[in-house]
Write a structure and sequence with these properties.
The protein is an alpha+beta fold. Helices cover 30% and strands 40% of the residues. The chain has one domain. The protein contains six helices and 13 strands. Strands 1, 2, 3, 4, 5, 6, 7, 8, 9, 10, 11, 12 and 13 form a 13-stranded antiparallel beta sheet that branches. Strand 5 and strand 6 form a beta hairpin. The relative contact order is 0.14.
């Protein structure tokens, strides 16, 4: 036995005694089809994930020059509350560009919100069986539309497993997302996905979407092509974080976009939203955030 063989044998023995697998191979990746089947069952939009929570949103909007350097920045911090049916989430602005909103303005926001809530309560008191049935149909319609969007995503994309990667201490499985040619999406969201390619990071243990990064491959029209056209190279990214060891909730969303607005004005903008301080919403939930310093 030569010297190198002897050293190798001793090293293997030492590793075994220490409880470390010798020449260990990386864990095999999960079977893709079965893994994606589990992921599909858990896919939800950020709005659905946040629907039962109050949280803080810190949003930075930047206007960029042609080279991509910021020329102007606006920072707004808001408390975000669950929406009333038929409305967007209520956003309570508490700080803008580092300056707390004056108490009088906060009181005004609260009074306006209270007025809307009371109007909704009075509407509920007058609600008939027919009204409740209509509301149930609307909720069912939203559910079907959400499912159709998920189905379109799996129809539009050629999804390939790339490997394993750790994000904030969680093992994730990374997938590439490449639009298939010749596919006819059934939803507006699906039509937009045809112009986007990127990667998705999925929690290996929870089958939950952790990170998504996409880039526009060509021009994407929004608003029937009349509102804006987003140019190739525009980027979007989303990340989620496991909150209180229970649920994966949005942590950040960002985009950098070059677009032509109303087919006339060319703009280059970027924005980053960070979400924090999640609290489960109940009717007793009160505003208790400290104002940013």
């Amino acid at each position: 036995m030569d010297y190198s063989t002897t050293v190798r044998a001793h090293l293997i023995l030492l590793l075994a005694l220490l409880g470390v697998p010798a020449l260990a191979q990386e864990r095999p990746l999960p079977e893709a089809e079965a893994f994606l089947g589990q992921v599909r069952q858990r896919l939800q939009t950020d709005e659905q994930r946040q629907s039962g929570y109050v949280y803080l949103e810190t949003r930075r909007d930047l206007k960029l020059d042609k080279s991509g350097k910021p020329t102007r920045e606006t920072v707004r911090v808001s408390e975000r509350y669950p929406r009333l049916p038929g409305e967007a989430r209520w956003s309570r602005l508490i700080s803008e560009n580092g300056k707390p909103v004056p108490p009088a303005e906060l009181d005004k926001q609260d009074r306006e919100r209270q007025k809307k809530v009371l109007e909704y309560v009075r509407k509920l008191e007058k609600q008939t069986d027919k009204d409740r049935e209509e509301q149930a149909r609307e909720l069912e319609k939203e559910r079907r539309e959400s499912e159709a969007t998920v189905e379109d995503a799996f129809r539009v994309y050629d999804i390939r497993m790339l490997g394993r990667e750790a994000i904030e201490g969680h093992d994730t499985i990374v997938f590439s997302l490449t639009p298939r040619r010749g596919v006819k999406p059934r939803t507006g969201e699906g039509k937009m996905l045809q112009h986007l390619a990127g990667k998705a990071w999925i929690s290996e243990s929870d089958y939950e979407l952790v990170r998504l990064e996409v880039e526009a491959l060509d021009t994407v029209s929004i608003g029937f092509g009349l509102f804006a056209r987003i140019h190739a190279g525009s980027r979007l990214a989303f990340q989620r974080r496991k909150v209180n060891g229970e649920e994966w909730l949005p942590a950040s969303a960002s985009y950098t976009v070059s677009a032509r607005m109303m087919l006339l004005i060319s703009v280059r903008v970027a924005a980053v939203s960070e979400f924090s301080d999640y609290r489960k919403f109940t009717v007793e939930t009160e505003t208790a955030y400290d104002r940013p310093k």
